[in-house]
Recover the amino acids of this structure.
């Protein structure tokens, strides 16, 4: 049971407002610990990756960093669409898949889910997406019912032919950026999508057996509670299969400029708090699951299994891959990425071996975003320590704020912890950084970090 005083404490002690909020979910990130990897070290490094891949099932992430749009709410720093560069990138991507297969990364593995993220992956025609999926299928078997998602800008998927082609290529889930249906806010954000257009895509996608997620945001420039409530009603009419509601992150230089010119457009922290509360309560009432509340893999299998700590092998420039014990990044720079694949070297640029303590923090941070929470017995077996002892201070803080529920066999988010899961996760990252970095803190995008990983 949570009281009004708990809510007030969450607001003052846990909640990140408009200017402080940085999207950190879902994974633990300890940036100060990365070590560079020279091209000559990559081959040897892949042997450690293979040893760390103890699970027979893996998740595959494919990054398409290009986009034709310039939305002010964008936080992924896409590259401007360019047919020649895109074609070069496609070839490098296919080569990277071959190189990782040749290194034996996929031996004995099955792909549980595949996720195309961006940028706008559907900037590539169906034939390219099909080619990438065929290449993946040629190096690793797909699990039965493998969930294959592509992110998409609505305007790229309005035709039935397009959706049919995606379905034929194997895509069975689309994640569409929408953020709001409010025409005034969309226009401010350099975006234009209507409820009718989005509703038509959802209906047409269903005809081809494709389920649809819609990404939404709270805290967009000039957004009011009334506007957010209208968005919720629109979602009830559009009826997507899944919704992800996140907070607008002030990171894009274009939005920073707009806010400098018109500071009155910044949503106040109190209003943002109410927006998050309202949107998250609506999600729960409407039966939509997201970080903090997943009970099964039906709405977003890739994320559900990620939170269960299935390894992610990511392909493409700027991507981050994880096993339970290590983490590595591809090069940020497209030309380096292409040059290395041309030379037959997987384009890995830096890595971390997670300490036992970091592994424990990562397990907590990921598992706590599932409805069942952290399973105490499993944690004890794996790490040979009691999570109640390891995380005593953190758990006490989150319990005091009414965000955590404990029993002898689990620790999970309370109803309110789930509503403010982004803040709980930031609190966990802060604790992890505080303990092993000698004072390193998260680097908000608003302070210049341009590192975006999916
Ligand atoms: S939000 Fe999506 S569509 Fe808009 S610029 Fe970013 S990647 Fe492109």
């Amino acid at each position: 049971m949570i009281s009004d005083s708990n809510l007030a404490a969450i607001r003052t002690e846990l909640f990140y407002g408009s200017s402080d909020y940085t999207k950190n979910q879902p994974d633990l990130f300890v940036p100060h610990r990365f070590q560079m990897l020279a091209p000559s070290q990559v081959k040897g490094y892949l042997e450690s990756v293979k040893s760390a891949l103890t699970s027979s099932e893996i998740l595959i992430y494919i990054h398409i960093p290009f986009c034709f749009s310039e939305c002010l709410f964008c936080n992924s720093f896409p590259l401007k669409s360019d047919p020649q560069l895109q074609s070069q990138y496609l070839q490098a991507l296919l080569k990277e898949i071959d190189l990782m297969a040749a290194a034996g990364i996929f031996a004995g593995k099955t792909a549980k889910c595949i996720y195309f993220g961006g940028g706008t992956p559907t900037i590539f025609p169906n034939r390219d997406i099909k080619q990438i999926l065929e290449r993946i299928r040629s190096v690793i078997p797909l699990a039965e019912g493998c969930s294959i998602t592509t992110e998409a800008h609505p305007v790229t998927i309005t035709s039935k032919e397009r959706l049919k082609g995606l379905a034929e290529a194997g895509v069975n889930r689309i994640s569409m950026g929408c953020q709001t249906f409010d025409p005034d806010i969309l226009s401010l954000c350099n975006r234009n999508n209507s409820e009718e257009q989005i509703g038509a895509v959802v209906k047409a996608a269903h005809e081809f057996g494709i389920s649809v997620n819609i990404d939404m945001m709270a805290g967009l420039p000039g957004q009011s509670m009334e506007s957010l409530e209208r968005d919720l009603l629109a979602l009830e009419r559009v009826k997507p299969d899944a919704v992800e509601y996140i907070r607008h992150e002030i990171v894009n230089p274009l939005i920073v400029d707009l806010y400098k010119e018109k500071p009155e457009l910044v949503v106040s922290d109190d209003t943002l708090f109410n927006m998050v509360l309202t949107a998250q309560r609506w999600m729960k009432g409407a039966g939509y699951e997201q970080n903090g509340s997943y009970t099964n893999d039906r709405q977003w299998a890739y994320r559900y299994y990620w939170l269960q700590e299935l390894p992610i092998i990511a392909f493409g420039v700027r991507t981050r891959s994880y096993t339970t014990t290590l983490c590595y990044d591809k090069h940020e720079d497209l030309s380096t990425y292409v040059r290395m694949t041309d030379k037959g070297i997987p384009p890995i640029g830096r890595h971390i071996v997670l300490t036992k303590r970091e592994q424990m923090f990562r397990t907590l941070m990921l598992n706590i975003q599932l409805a069942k929470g952290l399973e105490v017995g499993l944690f004890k077996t794996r790490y040979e320590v009691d999570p109640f002892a390891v995380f005593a201070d953190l758990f006490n803080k989150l319990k005091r704020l009414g965000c955590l529920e404990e029993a002898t066999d689990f620790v999970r988010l309370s109803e309110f912890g789930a509503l403010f899961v982004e803040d709980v996760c930031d609190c966990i990252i802060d604790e992890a950084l505080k303990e092993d970095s000698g004072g390193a803190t998260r680097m908000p995008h608003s302070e210049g970090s341009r590192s975006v990983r999916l």
